[in-house]
């Protein structure tokens, strides 16, 4: 069996709202039966990816917490031999009251995308007044022993006045707050002009931060401990210090398409699986995609951030704050 040329061990399982409840139920129309993998086909694709080194699966896409079949999805992923960790990315709305069964099935970690701790702002941002429901899910996850990370994109003039409040969460609760420069899941091809570089957020945190040690497969954040606190603070500087050369992630969509990068187009593994070559065709296809990724990230290795090149209008004055952040930040773990 050929081996891959790069350590790819992290899969984003990307689920879309229109497959909600259909992915795993028997209620699919003939059209969807053509478009979506059957449960045994999805299991086979996940198994073949696990054979190629995938150990961690993150369930993501249109908010998976809103899916009626989320527990079944977790159960399916947990049944794949070789998968050692299952994580979820969500805003948290719709999750409270469901975390205990998810944890029992094997869900170990939840990343909450939460850009504000203010109910009014939450409504303004997400068009929903369910801030408290989202926060209940955070508390419930902690009570169930699930690892909690809160991802916060800080933008100038919108939520930069909440940096202290977010930092206070990490000081008082056993969770990680991770300040993200830019939400790469957005449709935009470049960060907005009001993005804040990590060093400015770092400078605004009112606590002494000490470089911390992130566990393996824990993501690309540069992690800091806060004096005497149960939590930690991380910075995901995906604009100013892009980390593509460290990337160990690929994606699989609910259409059975494999993606070498979140910005890449999907290539259909499902077509391969249903084709003449079947399983061996899929194995070869996965190898090709992973090799292509290897070439891509090697090329990106020491190049300046493509985001910065694409957004020349950013005034990135690398002043004292940038120097202090650069000197203090630990190297990011492999993502
Ligand atoms: S290669 Fe870069 S942009 Fe693509 S998924 Fe990895 S870290 Fe993200």
Helix content: 25-40%
Give the H and E element order: EHHEHEHEHHEHEHEEEEEEHHHH
Q: Strand order, biggest sheet?
A: 7-8-9-6-5-4-3-2-1-10-11-12
Overall average pLDDT: 85
How many domain units?
Answer: 1
Beta-strand proportion: 15-25%
Number of helices: 12
Shape: globular
Q: Count of DSSP E strands?
A: 12
Characterize the main sheet: 12 strands, mixed
Low-confidence stretches: 1-5, 304-318
Helix and strand content put the structural class at alpha/beta
Rg from Cα: 20 Å
Defining traits:
335 residues, TIM Barrel, 18% strand, twelve-stranded mixed sheet, binds iron/sulfur cluster, disordered N terminus, alpha/beta, 12 helices, single chain
Give structural notes.
- The protein is α/β, with parallel strands linked by helices and about 325 residues long.
- It has one domain: Aldolase class I (TIM Barrel).
- The protein has helices at about 30-35, 40-50, 70-80, 100-105, 120-125, 130-145, 165-170, 200-205, 270-275, 280-300, 305-310, 320-330, and strands at about 10-15, 55-60, 85-90, 105-115, 145-155, 175-180, 210, 220-225, 230-235, 250-255, 255-260, 265-270.
- It has a 12-stranded mixed beta sheet.
- The radius of gyration is 20 Å and the shape is globular.
- It binds iron/sulfur cluster.
- Iron/sulfur cluster binds near residues 243, 249, 261, 262 and 297.
- Iron/sulfur cluster binds near residues 243 and 262.
